[in-house]
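no rush on this but wanted to send it before i forget. what follows is a protein written twice so to speak, once as letters and once as structure tokens for the fold. mainly i need to know what kind of three dimensional shape the backbone takes. thanks a lot i owe you, the record is right below.
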Amino acid sequence: MFIDKVIINIKSGDGGSGAISFNQDSKNSRGGPDGGNGGRGGSVWIRCDKNMSNLNSYRFSKNFKAENGGKGSDQNKTGFNGKDVYINVPVGTLIRDKSNKRNLLANLSCDEDSFEVLTGGKGGRGNVAFVTSKNKEPLLAESGEKIDIKQIELDFRVSSNLCLIGPPNSGKSTLINNISNAKPDIGNYPFTTREPVIATVQRKFQNVTVIEIPGLVKDPENNLASGNQYLKHLQKTNIIGMVIDINSDILSEINLIYDELKKYNKALLEKRMVLILTHCDELGEADLNDFINEITQKFRSLNDQIFTLNNSIDDKIMKFIDKIQEYLLVIDNEDMDDDVPIIKFHKNELKRVMFKDDHFVINDKQFIQLAEGSNLNNWKTLVQFQYKLKSSKIGDELINIGIKRGDLLKIGQYAFTWEE
């Protein structure tokens, strides 16, 4: 099985809650505040692993979660930081935000590339952070920042020197079998190859990476076995090798290939392309030359780029590999990926304050953390919370949208009346 695209669920760790604590001693029964901050949650990282050649590892493993940060404690002790989690992917993997597919998060194209795809939640502040000249004994602390589960798409594209494409049963599998140790299925029926085959050809102390994709068809919507769904892998190849049976309608097959490449990404037509005619065993040189002349009259760009190969290993195949190696020496090794990371995860931000039904709502993340990290069921804590709220910009926004004394105000799990 060859998996080149998967959707996985990721979650970075939540931040630890800040502590509400007081340092008691013999002289002061209550003591001064000494509640420490919570630790940060672990992050989720994606990193390249040169030993991976597909995404098969994530066929069943689809959920990844980093460790939560630890809670703060007395004596102003900060909670421990959560451990990060690392997800390994092959070189050439694109990471997208599943909620917004246009949002490319990263393009990992080099070995050991890494990307922090989801940062861990910040730790909440302990009550030491809320000491002021007017409040020497704060009963307030913050919960840690909560992080939602995200879905990301891992989209792998194979890097290769030569990519073999063409109609079904054109001889692609036989060719890759003859030039490498790869053993793809070979049969006299359409779509013998149902997924990409990757092979390495060793010749004159130089390695050539070759990939074969399943046969291309004119109407891929009704044929899930076709290679049209794998055309993305051509974006990371140096040379496109069109493999066509010499006994077929060659000009029509070339037109079909050009049309499908143009539909997918017309920039693919700018890559170096060679034509490989297979099953040439029974034809003489004169007949082969007639075929070549007819093709080059129609497709001038293929002049001197046509190879006539037999079904077995012979000098023609070796000369073909030698020519591919010559081409690679003068081809710019840069792939044609124009995928550039855009922004971070798409966020659906709510208004910080709003009126809903018969009450006012605070959606501000920082004040929600403050409410959840404190005990607003304690009236003294609620007084301190309301004082901080009214002296903030959030308080001004509530007044601007019409809140009055006695109106119901909700924040997180708490609801209370507004006091002036």
